Amino acid sequence: MVNYLRYICLGLAILMLSVETAWTQQAGSIRGVVYDKDFESPLAAANVLISEMDVSVITSEEGNYVFGEIEPGTYTLIFSKDGFTTQIKADIVVSGGQLSEIDIWLTGEFTEMEEFIVQDIQIGSGSEEALLQLRLDSPALMDSISSELMSRAGASDAAGALKLVSGATVQDGKFAVVRGLPDRYVNSQLNNVRLPTSDEDKRAVQLDQFPSAAIESVQVSKTFTPDQQGDASGGAVNIVLKSIPEESIFKISGQSGYNLNVVENRNEFLTSRGGGVNTWGKDDGRRDMQPNGQNWNGPFGVQEGEAPEDYKWSVSAGGKTFLDRYERVKIGAFGSFFYERDSSYFEDGIDDKYWVENLAFTGGERRIVPEYSRGSPQEESFLTSLFDVTQGAEEVKWGGLGTVGIETKDHQFDVTYMFTRVAEDKATLLEDTRGKKTLAKFFPDNFNPDFFSNYDPKDPDHPGNSEAADAAPYLRQETLQYTERTTQTLQFRGKHKLGELDLSIGELITFLRPEFDWGISHNKADMDQPDKRQFGTEWRPFAGLNAEPTHLRLKPGASFTLGNVQRIWKDISEDGDQQYFNIKLPFQLWNDQEGYAKFGWFNDQVSREYNQDSFSNFSDVGAQYVGPFSDLWSEVFEDEDHPISAASVDVDYDGEQKINAWYYMLDMPISSNFNIIGGARYEDTEINIENFPDPGGQVLWIPPNASAPQILNPGDADVAFEQSDVLPSLGFVYDISDQFKLRGSYSETVARQTFKELSPIQQQEFLGGDIFIGNPNLKMSSLKNYDIRLDYTPYNGGLISFSYFYKDIEDPIEYVRRIVGFSFTTPVNYPKGEINGFEIEARQKLGHFSKELKGLMIGANATFIDSEVTLPASEAAQFNQFSVQSPRKTRDMTNAPEHLYNLFMTYDVPNTGTQLAVFYTVRGDTLIAGAGQKGQLVPNVYESEYGTLNASITQKLNKSWTLKLQAKNLLDPAIETIYRPIDISGDTTKTSYKKGIEFSVSLSGSF
Question: pLDDT of 255-289, one tens digit each?
């Protein structure tokens, strides 16, 4: 790996020395005057943009503009101003040390020819200035991140980009969270199309599968308007793919990098025999299911191997051309292919389980102790879960994007297809040796500190190896998990300007040309997880007939027929079809103010197939392996006699969700600076689930209000849910001045259940793992949303913004722990929830204030969130039980961080083609699991605050080639979750690991 990077860096250094670099040339400049052609006078406040540099200036009162210190080359200038026709001046040559003078005359927007030119031009859709203008023009509260800023921040995919948006973050590294509301409240889209998902738990799109190479921008609408889908409660995240460029382009880029955690353990990387991902992330058949009831081949556990190499590359090309000599029909195309390999490793992780033991009623104190199972400290026979964790993961991600479009003066039509494949191979090793060593610390009443301190596994006379040999023995769990995910979308879209209506209402309203847009898409998501393998052992230093160190089976349950091996095949396939159309009727009032009426229809149908097959070494009685703890029994298990047979505990299901909606809305100018936007959306929701339990009568479920599990028969737990909603929205936009804009809105939205949450059957990720049982009585949540924001734009490209939001949630869906003969997790509707907060955002180009600071830009945003949910009466009563004694009526909402901070600085060094960038993001403490009880109190679990620091240096080598050096996660903080009891001081670590610092070097060319 190191040699590989050395050769790349050497080659790049030679290339830098050999090219004719742009910064060695003397700079030129451009200046001129913009005139109002109709009145033959200078035009102030017009915008002049250099397309290739994405740099713009505003003309003075005398119409003057100037660009100083421009690299020699050929440029395109774009002149624009509201109320005037945009003009483009191409092929402007700038020579070193010379001044180019370009004057231009802008006319009013009324000629047919010029209107066509305006429609044809799409400049800077991936630039910060263009997205800032979109933010100001949008009827909803919108924030955006451009491809330009994503590149500087080192965001490798849409999930990384979302972290840069004010008030937004991601859950589990994949799912959007906006203003503290997780995936069920956030509508994630690709080119305005809601994609299906292959995630077994959620209906949310996994954002990590969309690489930055294919993304033009990430747009987040934080308020609901009727033309959005009704579950956009926290916001709507729209990933805008790169589109057809105006000019022919060809781009290529390559990157090589490494993670310090991986490099430092490059010969001890955790994997498995034959593990890893192949070139295209497609299993080659080694993980196929084997004959039932026989010994199975293949690795059962982890092993050390050589670390993989990290690299990625992409290539894209596109352009437009006229089809006829009159230049009235234009056709264009764009294609992109991307490929990435990545790896991660850590060996200092922990994964501990604790709970609060209530000793108050016996005269003792409440204290947090390790969670125990299969016995108790009083019996001096039990297991703990205080695991040290080592994990290695390899990932390959690749895909392609293709778009073809045709446009005329009044019509646009395009077809887009995108395919992504993500394959990940993860090996995880967990070892519990701390449980034995902490018996005296946590349970001094049962294990005398005078005897149980300083545990020695080699001392046969130590009480931990004799009378307390069954108390917290050493444990080991090995997991091999290989997953393939694919997503495909085929989208057909059209935009049309219809003929003149020649319709008016007296002199009050004159209707302008209607606009019509539509879309049809077919989408598919698949998840294939073949042969997930789990292997568990417990170790005794003095066991067996000869009192030798012995590995015994770690059975996930008390049943003696359950083995220590689980091998699971899982397939999830989801298909979705969407259709929509929107009709917009612009109009002009008697006072020349313009507004519009809009209405449309939307239909979304999603079908899911879920299939799981589990196997184990049932009745593998007496199996053991003699050897020290450092030996891995899994390495020889394959060569021993351990038949694997089917476990008849699986439930497959087919699910279907149908959403049909129509809406109307009106944007009405009350005055020249005050608009009201209002309307309503009507949505019908239908969710159906049909379950298919394994034959044999071993599948259990919990009927509503049942006191004990029952056998699940076909048809018992099928679900049919229907609901209709009317979702109103009312907002306003007030232009206080040219620099101040105030927005406010009120809306009502919904949040839906998932297939898994509605199915009242026993579901386990693996045998012996946590049990989840759905709730067929689960209702949709409804929200009332209040938002207000003030934007201040002191100059072109500058921004200061203040926002406040409040959301009142009825029937929020939360997860709780229940006990009916055994403990399980189930979703319930809490009575009420609320979340409110403030957002502050600023972006400043310091060159506006001082010439010496030209090229320096700073930005910051902060979000402060306060959330609360009210517990159901039955849930509150559980915390007030005699054995728990932790009364409470409310708690924080899950996945709502206390605060979010983003700070960044970019610097375009004058005359050198160098860009410097630093980005720092902070996510505050976040509740990820509410308190529950398993006979004892399990406290709230929070993810602790941590910050991420990224930095990059980008250097233009010449007009075509760019070199970039990047460092990510420079602070390498510990990412921790902690138990936080409300009535015991101090936090206790639950999980912890470090991602490692990443370095990369990349070279890209644009032609």
Answer: 999 999 999 999 999 999 988 999 999 998 889 99
The pTM (predicted TM-score) of the whole model is 0.82
What distance in Å separates the CA atoms of residue 841 and residue 863, rounded to the nearest whole number? 9
- CA 694/CA 687 separation, integer angstroms: 23
Half-sphere exposure at residue 776, Cβ-oriented, CA atoms within 13 angstroms = 19
The token pair at 960 is 């075509």
Q: Are 371 and 384 in contact (CB under 8 A)?
A: yes
Give the other-Cβ count within 10 Å of 7's Cβ.
11
pLDDT tens digits along 926-983: 998 888 776 678 888 999 999 999 999 999 898 889 999 999 999 999 999 999 988 7
Alpha-carbon span 863 to 922, nearest angstrom? 10
Residue 764 is predicted with a pLDDT of 63
Whose tokens are 């000869």? That residue is 546
* Number of CB atoms found within 10 A of residue 472's CB: 31
CA atoms of 761 and 994, how far apart (whole Å): 36
Residue 429 pairs with which residues in a beta bridge? 390, 478
Contact of 556 with 469, CB cutoff 8 Å: no
Q: How far apart are CA 832 and CA 781, in angstroms?
A: 10
The answer to whether 406 and 438 have CB atoms below 8 angstroms apart is no
SS3 152: helix
Count of helix runs (H) and strand runs (E) in the chain = 12, 62
* Nearest Cα to Cα of residue 240 among 126, 352, 358: 126
CA distance 549 to 515: 79
Dihedral (CA of 196, 198, 204, 206) sign: negative
CA 905 to chain CA centroid, nearest Å = 24
Written as one string, the DSSP assignment of 354-415 is EEEE--GGGTS--EEEE--EEEEGGGTEEE--EEEEEEEEEEEEEEEEEEEEEE-SSEEEEE
Spatial separation of the C-alpha atoms in residues 975 and 988, rounded to whole Å: 14
Looking at residues 665-692, what average pLDDT do you find?
94
List the one residue out of 375, 352, 367 whose CA is nearest residue 433. Answer: 352
Measured CA to CA, the distance from residue 306 to residue 322 in angstroms comes to 54
Rounded to an integer, what distance in angstroms lies between the CA atom of residue 228 and that of residue 192? 9
Residues, the chain: 1007
- According to DSSP, the β-strands at 235-241 and 186-190 are parallel
Nearest to 910 by CA among 814, 846, 825, 862: 846
The CA distance from 707 to 525, in Å, is 38
H-only helix segments in 70-127: 112-120
Task: Determine contact, residues 830/814, Cβ cutoff 8 Å.
Answer: yes
Q: What are the tokens at 789?
A: 């924001």
Q: Using CB atoms within 10 A of its CB, is residue 883 exposed (0-12), middle (13-18) or buried (19+)?
A: exposed
Exposed (0-12), middle (13-18) or buried (19+): which is 954, by Cβ within 10 Å? buried
Predicted confidence band at 667 (pLDDT cuts at 50, 70, 90)?
very high
Q: How far apart are CA 893 and CA 887, in angstroms?
A: 18
Q: In 590-707, where do the E strands start and end?
A: 594-616, 624-626, 645-647, 651-671, 674-693, 700-701
> Which pLDDT band, with edges at 50, 70 and 90, does 237 fall under?
confident
- Show Cβ contacts of residue 932 under 8 Å, excluding neighbours closer than 6 positions: 816, 817, 825, 938
In sequence order, the β-bridge partners of residue 527 are 485, 572
Burial per residue of 255-282, b for 16 or more beta-carbon CB atoms within 10 angstroms, e otherwise = bbbbbbbbbebbeebbbbeebbbeeebe
- For residues 169 and 163, is the Cβ–Cβ distance under 8 A? yes
Residue 460 near residue 542, CB atoms below 8 Å = yes
392, 427 contact by CB (below 8 A) = yes
Question: What distance in Å separates the CA atoms of residue 889 and residue 895, rounded to the nearest whole number?
Answer: 19
Distance CA 178, CA 224 (A): 13
Quote the DSSP letter at residue 763. E
